[in-house]
Write a structure and sequence with these properties.
The chain is α+β, with helices and mostly antiparallel strands. Helices cover 44% and strands 27% of the residues. It has a single domain, classed as 2-Layer Sandwich (Gyrase A, domain 2). It contains two helices and four strands; from the N terminus they run ββαββα. It has a four-stranded antiparallel beta sheet with strand order 1-2-4-3, with helices on one face. A hairpin with a 7-residue loop joins β3 and β4. It is globular and about 45 Å long.
Length: 84
């Protein structure tokens, strides 16, 4: 998986991601945290996704970190259920 930080500010970040599934899951979890804006676009199927994230009052890095941790916890729960 390829992720590149294109723009990194306190309340805004722009990433390039080559995995549509990861981008969509992250976008969903970011909105659950109350982030102001999180969306991706793809100019062409052969190019990576441009993912933009904006926050009004929180550090974008912190919100992304919290969202990734929530994704990990949910994946661990699913794995535990699947192993039963």
């Amino acid at each position: 998986m390829y992720i590149e930080i294109v723009k990194n500010e306190k309340n805004a970040m722009e990433l390039r991601i080559d995995n549509l599934t990861v981008a969509e899951i992250l976008r969903d979890y970011l909105y659950r945290t109350g982030i102001r804006y999180a969306a991706w676009r793809r100019e062409h199927p052969s190019k990576p996704i441009i993912f933009k994230i904006e926050s009004s009052d929180q550090s974008v890095k912190k919100v992304i970190s919290d969202s990734v941790e929530a994704i990990k916890k949910d994946c661990d729960k699913i794995l535990a259920i699947a192993k039963k």
